[in-house]
Amino acid sequence: MSWVTRFLIGMGVVWSVAVTPLMVGQAAPADQARWDRKYDTDRYIFGTEPIPFLRAHAHLLPKGKVLDIAMGEGRNGVYLATQGFDVTGIDISPVGLKKAQALAARHGVTIATQVVDLEAYTLPKNAYDVIICTYYLQRDLFPQIIDALKPGGMALVETYTIDHLKYRPRFPRAYLLKTNELLTVFRGMKVLRYQARDDGRQAYASILVQKP
Length: 212
Known about the structure:
24% strand, Rossmann fold, alpha/beta, 7-stranded mixed sheet
Protein backbone atom coordinates (compact mmCIF):
# COMPACT_ATOMS: atom_id res chain seq x y z
CA MET A 1 0.00 0.00 0.00
CA SER A 2 1.48 3.35 -1.02
CA TRP A 3 1.93 6.23 1.42
CA VAL A 4 -0.64 8.23 -0.57
CA THR A 5 -3.23 5.47 -0.14
CA ARG A 6 -2.43 5.26 3.57
CA PHE A 7 -2.84 9.04 3.89
CA LEU A 8 -6.20 9.08 2.11
CA ILE A 9 -7.52 6.20 4.20
CA GLY A 10 -6.26 7.87 7.35
CA MET A 11 -8.15 11.01 6.36
CA GLY A 12 -11.31 8.97 5.93
CA VAL A 13 -11.27 9.63 2.18
CA VAL A 14 -12.40 6.75 -0.01
CA TRP A 15 -12.11 7.20 -3.76
CA SER A 16 -9.91 5.95 -6.56
CA VAL A 17 -7.42 8.38 -8.05
CA ALA A 18 -7.78 7.96 -11.79
CA VAL A 19 -4.55 8.25 -13.71
CA THR A 20 -4.88 8.30 -17.47
CA PRO A 21 -2.24 6.08 -19.11
CA LEU A 22 0.69 7.71 -20.85
CA MET A 23 0.56 6.73 -24.50
CA VAL A 24 2.91 9.03 -26.39
CA GLY A 25 6.56 9.87 -26.93
CA GLN A 26 9.60 7.60 -27.23
CA ALA A 27 11.47 9.51 -24.52
CA ALA A 28 8.47 9.51 -22.20
CA PRO A 29 9.18 6.28 -20.26
CA ALA A 30 12.66 7.46 -19.22
CA ASP A 31 11.42 10.93 -18.30
CA GLN A 32 8.49 9.46 -16.41
CA ALA A 33 10.72 7.09 -14.45
CA ARG A 34 13.13 9.89 -13.55
CA TRP A 35 10.38 12.13 -12.19
CA ASP A 36 8.62 9.25 -10.46
CA ARG A 37 11.85 8.49 -8.59
CA LYS A 38 12.24 12.15 -7.63
CA TYR A 39 8.68 12.38 -6.29
CA ASP A 40 8.70 8.99 -4.56
CA THR A 41 9.25 10.32 -1.06
CA ASP A 42 6.98 11.19 1.84
CA ARG A 43 7.95 14.86 1.70
CA TYR A 44 6.87 17.35 -0.93
CA ILE A 45 10.17 18.16 -2.59
CA PHE A 46 9.01 21.58 -3.82
CA GLY A 47 6.87 22.28 -0.76
CA THR A 48 3.11 22.58 -0.43
CA GLU A 49 2.73 26.36 -0.66
CA PRO A 50 2.14 28.15 -3.98
CA ILE A 51 4.81 30.34 -5.51
CA PRO A 52 4.56 33.89 -4.11
CA PHE A 53 3.83 35.41 -7.54
CA LEU A 54 0.71 33.26 -7.86
CA ARG A 55 -0.50 33.95 -4.34
CA ALA A 56 0.00 37.69 -4.83
CA HIS A 57 -2.00 37.83 -8.05
CA ALA A 58 -4.61 35.09 -7.71
CA HIS A 59 -7.27 37.72 -7.04
CA LEU A 60 -6.80 39.03 -10.60
CA LEU A 61 -7.51 35.68 -12.25
CA PRO A 62 -10.93 35.10 -13.85
CA LYS A 63 -12.89 32.36 -12.08
CA GLY A 64 -13.40 29.23 -14.10
CA LYS A 65 -11.34 26.42 -15.58
CA VAL A 66 -7.63 26.30 -14.77
CA LEU A 67 -4.96 24.19 -16.45
CA ASP A 68 -1.80 23.61 -14.40
CA ILE A 69 0.91 22.53 -16.85
CA ALA A 70 3.61 20.28 -15.35
CA MET A 71 1.65 20.24 -12.10
CA GLY A 72 4.10 18.01 -10.24
CA GLU A 73 3.05 17.61 -6.62
CA GLY A 74 0.30 20.18 -6.98
CA ARG A 75 1.25 23.12 -4.77
CA ASN A 76 0.00 25.77 -7.21
CA GLY A 77 -3.04 24.01 -8.63
CA VAL A 78 -4.29 22.92 -5.22
CA TYR A 79 -3.97 26.48 -3.95
CA LEU A 80 -6.17 27.70 -6.80
CA ALA A 81 -8.68 24.95 -6.04
CA THR A 82 -8.93 26.29 -2.48
CA GLN A 83 -9.74 29.68 -4.02
CA GLY A 84 -12.71 28.29 -5.92
CA PHE A 85 -11.17 27.46 -9.29
CA ASP A 86 -11.93 24.31 -11.32
CA VAL A 87 -8.43 22.87 -11.66
CA THR A 88 -6.99 20.26 -14.00
CA GLY A 89 -3.33 19.33 -13.69
CA ILE A 90 -1.22 17.57 -16.31
CA ASP A 91 2.20 16.05 -15.76
CA ILE A 92 4.35 13.16 -16.94
CA SER A 93 4.60 11.67 -13.43
CA PRO A 94 1.72 9.66 -11.97
CA VAL A 95 3.58 9.62 -8.65
CA GLY A 96 3.64 13.41 -8.56
CA LEU A 97 -0.03 13.65 -9.48
CA LYS A 98 -1.04 11.19 -6.76
CA LYS A 99 0.72 13.45 -4.27
CA ALA A 100 -1.19 16.39 -5.75
CA GLN A 101 -4.44 14.49 -5.17
CA ALA A 102 -3.40 13.80 -1.59
CA LEU A 103 -2.60 17.47 -1.05
CA ALA A 104 -6.01 18.41 -2.45
CA ALA A 105 -7.68 15.96 -0.07
CA ARG A 106 -5.78 17.49 2.83
CA HIS A 107 -7.26 20.87 1.91
CA GLY A 108 -10.75 19.50 1.34
CA VAL A 109 -10.86 20.26 -2.39
CA THR A 110 -10.92 18.18 -5.56
CA ILE A 111 -8.80 18.47 -8.68
CA ALA A 112 -8.63 16.56 -11.94
CA THR A 113 -5.31 15.11 -13.05
CA GLN A 114 -4.03 13.52 -16.23
CA VAL A 115 -0.70 11.89 -17.04
CA VAL A 116 0.62 13.26 -20.33
CA ASP A 117 3.90 13.59 -22.19
CA LEU A 118 3.90 17.33 -22.80
CA GLU A 119 6.37 17.01 -25.66
CA ALA A 120 3.75 15.05 -27.63
CA TYR A 121 0.57 16.64 -26.30
CA THR A 122 -1.56 19.33 -27.91
CA LEU A 123 -3.53 21.69 -25.70
CA PRO A 124 -7.20 22.11 -26.67
CA LYS A 125 -8.06 25.50 -28.13
CA ASN A 126 -10.20 28.11 -26.33
CA ALA A 127 -10.66 25.75 -23.39
CA TYR A 128 -9.35 27.48 -20.26
CA ASP A 129 -9.90 30.66 -18.30
CA VAL A 130 -6.47 30.40 -16.66
CA ILE A 131 -3.29 28.50 -17.53
CA ILE A 132 -0.34 28.33 -15.16
CA CYS A 133 3.08 26.91 -15.93
CA THR A 134 5.86 27.21 -13.37
CA TYR A 135 9.45 25.98 -13.51
CA TYR A 136 8.90 24.01 -16.68
CA LEU A 137 10.20 25.40 -19.97
CA GLN A 138 9.08 23.93 -23.28
CA ARG A 139 9.10 26.72 -25.81
CA ASP A 140 6.70 25.19 -28.31
CA LEU A 141 4.04 25.32 -25.60
CA PHE A 142 3.92 29.13 -25.57
CA PRO A 143 1.77 29.50 -28.73
CA GLN A 144 -0.37 26.59 -27.54
CA ILE A 145 -0.96 28.32 -24.22
CA ILE A 146 -2.19 31.42 -26.03
CA ASP A 147 -4.48 29.36 -28.27
CA ALA A 148 -5.79 27.31 -25.33
CA LEU A 149 -6.99 30.38 -23.44
CA LYS A 150 -10.51 31.66 -23.86
CA PRO A 151 -10.84 35.33 -24.84
CA GLY A 152 -10.09 37.33 -21.70
CA GLY A 153 -8.27 34.36 -20.17
CA MET A 154 -4.97 34.72 -18.35
CA ALA A 155 -1.66 32.89 -18.32
CA LEU A 156 0.79 32.93 -15.43
CA VAL A 157 4.31 31.69 -16.12
CA GLU A 158 7.41 31.62 -13.93
CA THR A 159 10.75 29.89 -14.43
CA TYR A 160 14.52 30.36 -14.27
CA THR A 161 16.42 32.84 -16.45
CA ILE A 162 19.88 32.65 -17.98
CA ASP A 163 21.22 34.55 -14.95
CA HIS A 164 20.50 31.46 -12.87
CA LEU A 165 23.75 29.98 -14.21
CA LYS A 166 25.67 31.98 -11.60
CA TYR A 167 24.06 29.76 -8.95
CA ARG A 168 23.88 26.52 -10.93
CA PRO A 169 26.59 26.61 -13.61
CA ARG A 170 25.69 23.15 -14.92
CA PHE A 171 22.01 23.91 -15.41
CA PRO A 172 21.09 23.17 -19.06
CA ARG A 173 20.94 26.45 -20.98
CA ALA A 174 18.09 25.16 -23.14
CA TYR A 175 15.83 25.26 -20.08
CA LEU A 176 16.62 28.83 -19.09
CA LEU A 177 14.78 31.92 -20.30
CA LYS A 178 16.70 34.49 -22.27
CA THR A 179 16.56 38.11 -21.14
CA ASN A 180 13.00 39.44 -21.58
CA GLU A 181 11.97 36.24 -23.38
CA LEU A 182 8.56 36.06 -21.70
CA LEU A 183 7.78 39.59 -22.85
CA THR A 184 8.68 38.56 -26.39
CA VAL A 185 6.68 35.33 -26.59
CA PHE A 186 3.58 36.97 -25.11
CA ARG A 187 3.91 40.25 -27.02
CA GLY A 188 0.39 39.93 -28.46
CA MET A 189 -1.09 39.69 -24.97
CA LYS A 190 -1.85 42.36 -22.39
CA VAL A 191 0.91 42.26 -19.78
CA LEU A 192 -0.64 42.70 -16.34
CA ARG A 193 2.45 41.94 -14.25
CA TYR A 194 6.08 41.16 -15.06
CA GLN A 195 9.17 40.75 -12.97
CA ALA A 196 12.72 39.49 -13.43
CA ARG A 197 14.36 38.80 -10.10
CA ASP A 198 17.66 37.66 -8.64
CA ASP A 199 17.26 36.98 -4.93
CA GLY A 200 20.83 35.88 -4.28
CA ARG A 201 19.96 32.18 -4.55
CA GLN A 202 18.17 31.94 -7.88
CA ALA A 203 17.29 34.09 -10.89
CA TYR A 204 13.86 33.84 -12.46
CA ALA A 205 11.19 35.73 -14.38
CA SER A 206 7.43 35.82 -13.82
CA ILE A 207 4.64 37.10 -16.02
CA LEU A 208 0.85 37.43 -15.89
CA VAL A 209 -0.78 38.13 -19.24
CA GLN A 210 -4.33 38.37 -20.56
CA LYS A 211 -5.61 37.25 -23.94
CA PRO A 212 -7.55 39.94 -25.82
